[in-house]
Amino acid sequence: xxxxxxxxxxxxTFGLPLSLFGVLIFLMKSPLLGNSDSFTLAITIDLxxxxxxxYLFLIHQTEIPKTTAVPVMIIGLLIGSYFLPKESxxxxxxxxxxxxxxxxxxxxxxxxxxxxxxxxxxxxxxxxKPDFFSALKSTCREILPKAAVMPVVTEVSVIYxxxxxxxxxxxxxNEFTYHKESGTPAxxxxxxxxxxxxxFVLHLLLAKWSVIAAWILSGLSIYTxxxxxxxxxxxxxxxxxxxxxxxxxxxxxxxxxxIPFSAIESVELISTPIExxxxxxxxxxxxxxxxxxIIRLNQEHVLTGLYGAKKRFKILGLHVDEPVxxxxxxxRVLLSEL
Length: 338
Prior knowledge:
By secondary structure, the protein is an alpha+beta fold. The chain has helices at residues 2-29, 37-59, 69-83, 90-126, 132-143, 146-164, 184-207, 211-237, 323-337, and strands at 175-176, 240-242, 246-251, 255-260, 264-268, 279-281, 293-305, 310-318. Strands 1, 2, 3, 4, 5, 6, 7 and 8 form an eight-stranded mixed β-sheet that branches. A hairpin with a 4-residue loop joins strand 7 (293-305) and strand 8 (310-318).
């Protein structure tokens, strides 16, 4: 019954704006109404304001972010640009020149303010240094559809950690690194080097057949290399931390999980392989990176990876640069919880 009601509500929420766009397309294609200035103005207002406002009214009591009205407005702009005759796009051109930049700046300012607010809230609740990735996720959950949250967060974070955040992070007493004594940074660096070399060679070979195809492949390869750079640099910015009431395990922006102290059964300093179907590693590199610490849980938890990929586990293997200090500090906290 609930699924049926949800389906009907979604049909109305998205179906009505689409139907209105369909009616406007029919009117723009109809030769009966002509292309007078008043008609053009009315159509433009309907495309850019009326349909988005109807959509906002339909979602005002739902969990759908209100910012999704902006894409609806963009759809109206695209429809008008395609179906209205060029000579009737005066008001559309004005909106593109003045209205669209203002909306873009407003949305950007809104996102920046929300991220700053989320960082402050995160710092207050967790008692640790601000974490951009966590704050960005919190913000995007409020302003984006659920399916778009992790892809947007991942892409923005790659740019942030790869090119914008160059400050050296000073660790707190409750934080632990995992990249200094592992071979992961060198491995990722070698991967970037291989991509660059292969891109150069393949570009020269492919250009003999198609210059366009060569540049497309080169662009994709360069983008992949930049992503790997962002992944690698995020390792130094997101340490493992023993927080007030939970253990935050991170592997840059590649993997993360937050485990309440009550769910931790034991912490062991072990580097041997574990033969257990519920065992996974914090590192996405799997067997390519060794572990020196094992955390056993009394219930299943979910490890969240790139673009929101999830893995369930009860035993987690990870590498910590200072495993003895990590275990001692975590054991003290666990004993105090008993």
